[in-house]
Write a structure and sequence with these properties.
This protein is an alpha/beta fold and 378 residues long. The chain has eight helices and 26 strands. The protein starts with 6 loop residues before the first strand and ends with a helix.
Length: 378
């Protein structure tokens, strides 16, 4: 299906901006409209925890710009969509018609606070990062709920500020994402830097109003000046309520980033591949899906697939770059350096023509890591 020319992107995210750029790169000359809900506009989210918590000046480097792309922008959240009449309705009552619609509204931070309970901190937006940075300046202790990429990056920011920090999770740091080998290495590094790791058999609840700690499964309470929830995110689909295109997982898509409704596509953290039944909310996937969605909306073959197994984090000053499927099990092959020295290139041959390469503490360009992963497959 080729749209008559009017394409609406809901979400001024990395996925939304990439869709607009790819549409123009593929030769689309019709109108492109972006409906965005963040007053700060489009910006990179990964640096929020890696850089912005440390350096206010870093905010100036985050912006995604669409200069010269001829895009109409309405910075007012979408609140509804009429998929039969092909229109998006914004918070001001504006009705934006489309021939093709691409949902790129991302996700909101998952919160644990009870209704009306104040004081919980999260890190999802630039505004969140500014608030947390300000609070870290005077805090004497912090608790981070969640030991994933974001949680461990926030813990690193606390350490850099000299704020004692405890990380609470059911599993060891990054165990679910990276697997046991790398989790053990990250855990040991965190503990050497003074991060206290607390494991709990069940999810915690928040104590106090305003929040001043967490209640563990056995009923004991950990207290701190700051409690930062890094327990995942919730796909932003409220504007699609009643449309039938979204469910509890987000917006289901196929490998063309098509939804179950003709002319409607989705990309980024709001979307999940129906064939896998789970979201993979990573920057690299958002970019890949945006390019696929743009091509599909124009009736063209995409220039890439909807997934990209590339991940990057920086924990307590240590860069970890990964190319390949996760998590990984078993012992890796050391291709270069030494894990004990905090500088190693590690490889896993996973079979079935799959492999994973990890630059642990090494600054390696991603193309080189991809080439090494290909070589490992034989």
């Amino acid at each position: 299906m080729k749209p008559r020319g009017s394409i609406v992107i809901v979400g001024e995210s990395i996925a939304g901006v990439t869709v607009a750029r790819e549409l123009r790169a593929l030769g689309h000359t019709g109108s492109i409209t972006i409906v965005g809900g963040d007053k700060d506009g489009a910006y990179a989210r990964p640096p929020l925890s890696k850089v912005v918590l440390h350096d206010p000046a870093a905010e100036d480097t985050l912006r995604y710009r669409l200069d010269g792309e001829r895009v109409d922008l309405f910075r007012e959240p979408a609140v509804a969509a009429d998929l039969d009449d092909r229109a998006v309705i914004t918070s001001t009552g504006r009705i934006v018609g489309y021939d093709a619609l691409i949902a790129a509204t991302g996700a909101d931070a998952r919160r644990l606070a009870s209704p009306g309970q104040s004081g919980e901190l999260v890190l999802r937006t630039l505004a969140d990062a500014r608030l947390l940075r300000t609070r870290l300046a005077t805090a004497t202790s912090a608790i981070v709920i969640g030991a994933g990429f974001l949680g461990m990056e926030v813990a690193g920011a606390c350490v850099a500020r000299g704020v004692p920090v405890t990380v609470v999770d059911v599993d060891p740091p990054l165990w679910r994402i990276l697997g046991p080998f790398l989790s053990d290495a990250v855990t040991a590094r965190a503990e050497r830097h003074g991060v206290q790791i607390v494991r709990t058999p069940h999810f915690v609840t928040l104590a106090g109003d305003p929040v001043c700690g967490v209640v563990l499964a056995e009923g004991s309470i950990l207290s701190a000046d700051l409690v930062i929830t890094c327990a995942g995110e919730v796909p932003n689909t409220a504007w699609l309520n009643g449309s039938g295109v979204a469910d509890r997982l987000g917006i289901g898509i196929d490998h063309h980033c098509s939804t179950t409704v003709p002319g409607v596509y989705a990309a980024g953290d709001v979307a999940y591949l129906r064939s896998e039944g789970r979201r993979s909310p990573f920057w690299s996937n958002a970019v890949a899906q945006a390019k696929v969605a743009a091509a599909s909306a124009l009736g063209l073959p995409p220039r890439t697939g909807p997934t990209d197994d590339y991940f990057w984090t920086e924990i307590l000053g240590l860069s970890i770059k990964i190319v390949g499927p996760l998590p990984v099990a078993g012992e890796p092959t050391t291709l270069e350096g030494s894990l004990a020295d905090g500088s190693a290139l590690l490889g896993w041959n996973l079979g079935d023509a799959r492999s994973t390469v990890v630059a642990y503490g090494l600054r390696k360009p991603v193309p080189k890591l991809r080439a090494m992963a290909n070589a490992l497959r034989g």
